[in-house]
From TrEMBL:
It comes from Evansella alkalicola. This is Proline dehydrogenase family protein. Residues 41-290 form the Proline dehydrogenase domain. Pfam families: Pro_dh. InterPro entries: PRODH_bac_arc (IPR008219), Proline_DH_dom (IPR002872), Proline_oxidase (IPR015659).
Length: 302
């Protein structure tokens, strides 16, 4: 728990971030981040597609505090959707509302999302709104509900460590949701603190969403969860086309391929861009074994 809290603290520390950027390559970021440019991201996605894996790409960036940065981030999302179409690769788009100005002006953020979703609709693509920390939860869900009155090609994520996860999930019946355990440090007032409690609720919301007939993107590297959901789906005759598994680029690559080879849709979350710091630190916080990437990189002689 100390290690997890430490890396979550670092993920939001601007002082450390400024000094860490130059260490990115040696910290092992290249193993889990698909370069800085759209071109590099598309090359990575194409290689994953060749292995039978589909993708969702995310231009890294969050906590934008001015209109110019928010508009630039939205334009990058539009360019990414256009690049996906031009490259003819199989990939969705993931994004964070804070990168589009949620903390600046809600209307600005909404207008940016409308522009992005219109572009996605043009290319018959889907956009996933990543869920952020608890302070942004209500604003994210409110905007999602507003957008879905016009667009059906947008969904979000539900975090199982939150007490309210099941209620939010039921309110979003029929929506394509990514179901995750949760990657931020939250108060005991709103979130489970013990891993076994989070795990139980995670399995619970997955099963509820599947039984509701809704599409579930099951985002986990936990092979025990994956096997339980496979068995559950077979028992309840839930077709493979109603769900997919998702994993992060660079993690458990052999398992990713095994799942795809079994005929399940396996989607890889492919991040790219210069603003890698917060994302990378949260990955270290999530799983202690991820830390070896950073340690090996720092002490590499290459």
């Amino acid at each position: 728990m100390i290690t997890r809290n430490f890396f979550l603290f670092l993920s939001q520390n601007k002082f450390v971030k400024k000094r860490a950027v130059r260490w990115g390559p040696k910290l092992g970021t290249k193993q889990v981040i698909a370069g800085e440019s759209i071109k590099e991201a598309m090359e990575t996605v194409a290689k994953l597609n060749e292995q039978g894996l589909v993708c969702t790409v995310d231009h890294l960036g969050e906590f934008v505090y001015n209109r110019e940065e928010a508009i630039a981030a939205a334009e990058m999302c539009v360019q990414t959707l256009e690049a996906i179409a031009e490259a003819k690769v199989d990939s969705n788009l993931s994004l964070k509302l804070t990168s589009l100005g949620l903390d600046v002006d809600r209307n600005l953020c909404r207008d940016n999302m409308v522009k992005i979703l219109n572009t996605a609709k043009k290319y018959n693509n889907f956009v996933r709104i990543d869920m952020e920390d608890y302070s942004h939860l209500d604003a994210t869900l409110d905007l999602l509900h507003e957008l879905r009155r016009t667009f059906d090609n947008v969904g979000t994520a539900i975090q199982a460590y939150l007490f309210r996860a099941e209620k939010d999930l039921r309110d979003l019946k029929g929506v394509n949701l990514r179901l995750i355990k949760g990657a931020y440090k939250e108060s005991p007032d709103v979130a489970y603190q013990k891993q076994d409690e989070v795990d139980r609720n995670y399995i619970n919301i997955i099963k509820i969403h599947l039984l509701n007939g809704s599409y579930a993107a099951i985002a986990t590297h936990d092979h025990r969860v994956i096997e339980e959901i496979k068995a559950f789906a077979k028992e309840h005759r839930i077709p493979k086309k109603q769900f997919e598994f998702q994993m992060l680029y660079g993690f458990r690559t052999e398992l990713q391929k095994e799942i795809a080879d079994e005929g399940y849709k396996m989607r890889i979350y492919v991040p790219f861009g210069e603003d890698w710091y917060g994302y990378f630190m949260r990955r270290l916080a999530e799983r202690p074994q991820n830390i070896r990437f950073a340690v090996q990189g720092l002490f590499s002689k290459k």
